[in-house]
Every structure is written in structure tokens, then in C-alpha cells.
Amino acid sequence: MPAGRHVAIIGAGAIGVISAIEALREGHRVTLIDPGEPGGEQAASYGNAGWLSSHSVIPPAEPGIWKKVPGYLMDPLGPLAIRWSYLPKALPWLVKYLLSGWTAARVETTAFALRDLLKDAPLLHRKLAEEAGVPELIERNGVMHVFPSRGNFDNDLGWRLRRKVGVQWLELNADEMRQREPELHPRYTFGVVVEEAGRCRDPGAYVAALANHAIASGAKHVRAKATGLKLNGGKLVAVITETGEIACDAAVIAAGARSRQLTASVGDPLPLETERGYHVVIENPESGPRSSMMASDAKMVVNWTNKGLRAAGTVEIAGLEAAPNWKRAEILRSHLLSMFPKLPKDIPASRIKSWFGHRPSMPDGRPCIGYARASRDIVYAFGHGHVGLVGSARTGRLVAQLLSGKAPEIPLAPFAPDRFL
Fold it and tell me: What stretches pass through the bilayer (predicted)?
């Protein structure tokens, strides 16, 4: 690949802005294209749980999950809900989703691939935060998983696979948990601490700082919505936006859940779906955890942020256009109050903030990172699902390596976009 290319990066979320930083480091000229404010409330990065969980290597679909699909359809407030009205459109994606986790061997393949992508992520993010002048936003102090019983942990395929791919952790009995987390509900009697993991104190502010760093380093930000790409004889010549064409000789599609239209425009109809997620934040809470944690029974991450105590999680399959179901955010709040009994039940509504957004997800839990079939001038970097923030640091490095024609630092075959084509 020629040096000093003009790279148009479509999407100014975590992956887009880090790709911009790394592409600039490689000597390329960069234009960021996004109609929104980097790190703004419209972005998936903004609403992220804030975990830098380098051990999040297990895809959402596991063996036997097909048995739960009827329940997902019947319960609009469960940890995974599917809206009936959207089912016909989502069905092809859901079939691929179920098949990807049909056997333990398939899940293991994904676990090894994601481990390569996520390993050392807290350290990579810390270095980026230091460059951007916000080192205080990244903390590398471990995260805790809590379980009602040891059996809930022992019977979990995910933890057996984490051990297999090299993740290590510290196990805690009930007394040890009480010493670390005295305000946690006593129904939790077993826990594990993954000490390699970390957290982001404010994902929105972090992405905004990274974008500012990219711009200060020479990137240009164009506020426009990209609608397609223009090729001439297999060579990229421009990104098409609603306000006109932007001439370039390379492009990165990192538009999150809205990447599907762009890949289809160059002949790659990829099965990208949105796993709609919610969070609630309690400002100035009277109680809470000392560390970041995930409750196995609630399928929910609880994390301290600069804006307050954030609870995030759940998946809703309902597409990009449907209105949010705010009862799902209320469920998160109820779980949070249940986990920490000292939190008052009558917290004023003015102190509770709810958010809703779109995770970009591929059926097998692995992102698309690689070249478009139509041209190696186009690099895909989207579909990270539940590991967008944590996976963005290495993904940005990989994007820059692909743009420069260098050997990628990890094997990219598991993330090849054409695995679904």
C-alpha cells in the first residue's frame, strides 16, 4: 500500500477515532466523517457499561440457547427480548446467531479469536488516554463477577473456556466477598475477580478526548452522513455523503450498527444487526460497590462513572427504528436496588438518568475486521457487539496496519468479513 494515503473514516465512535489516531501515526491523512458529536449521547460508545473486560471472550449465543427463544419472544422485559413485529426481519440473523453457538467447539473458536483481540486492552487504552490528556478516565484495577452460588459458576461453559484461553482470576467465598463488598446483598455467596481487567470512568468523555486528540494531530472532522462509496475500476475515489462527495483513496467503515448499508453499497451484504442496549445512572448514590462488577443472575454490569453509578446490560432485538422500551431501563434500576439494599427505594427521578442505544452485532459475536471484496482500499471495522469499547484499542491498530499493507499483529481470519458471504 502507498504511504500517506488520504483515508476517510466513516464513524467517529471509539473504533473510528482510535483508527484515526493510529492511521495518523502511520503517516496517512485522515478525514473523520460523522454527522454527530464524537462521544455524544447518540453514540453506542457513550452508553457503554464502561468495562474494559479483556476476558469478555464468550459470544452471546451458547449451546442450548435455542431452547430459550420462546421465552425471549414472550417476555419483553427479559435479559434478551425479541419484538414480535421485528421477528420476520431479524429471523435470518437469529438463525445464524443460534448456529454460531450450537456447539461448545464453535464457542471455543470465538473465545480464542476474541482473546487475541482483547488481551492487554486496559493497557492499550491507558496509553491512548495518556496521549489524549485524560489518563484519569482509564483505571486498571480489576472487575468482579458475583454469583448466588459456587454452582452457578462451575456450571458455566464460559468460565471453563476463559481458563482454556488463558484468563486468570481470584476466587472469593462469601466471607471474602463481604470484606470486599460489604453493601452487596448477602444472596451472592461466590465471586471471582479478574485482576487484568479495568474500567473507563466516562466512555463518552473518553471518546470525545480521543477525537480531539486525533483532530489536534491533523485529522479533519466532516459533519455529514455517509451514504455510499464511489469506485472506479476497483479503486476507491470518494465517499458519498448527503452533502456531497469527499475525495479519498482509502476508507474505513466504522459506522457501528449503521454500517450495513455502506457495505451493501459495495457488494457485501453482511448480516449486521443491532442488539439494542440500555443503561441507568444514579447520581450521587447513597450506596454501591467498591469495585466494578457483574451480577450473573441479572446479566448486568454495575460500574462507577464520573456521572454516577451506572447499571448497563440486556439485549433487545427490534431494529434501528423502533422506539425504546423504557421499562427495560426500569428493570435495570430494580436490579440495582436489589443488589444494594442500602440504596433508597424512593430515589428522586431527577437523580436517575436512562439511556438507550445500538450495539452493532454480528451473529457469531466476532466483529468484521478486514478488506471489502470489491477493493482493498476499503477496510471494515464494525460489529463488535458487547466488546466495542474494550476491543477498540487493538482494532484501531489493526485498521492502520491494513491501510498500510502491513502484517496484522493478530490473526484476522476469524474476523474476515467474507466468512458470511
Answer: none
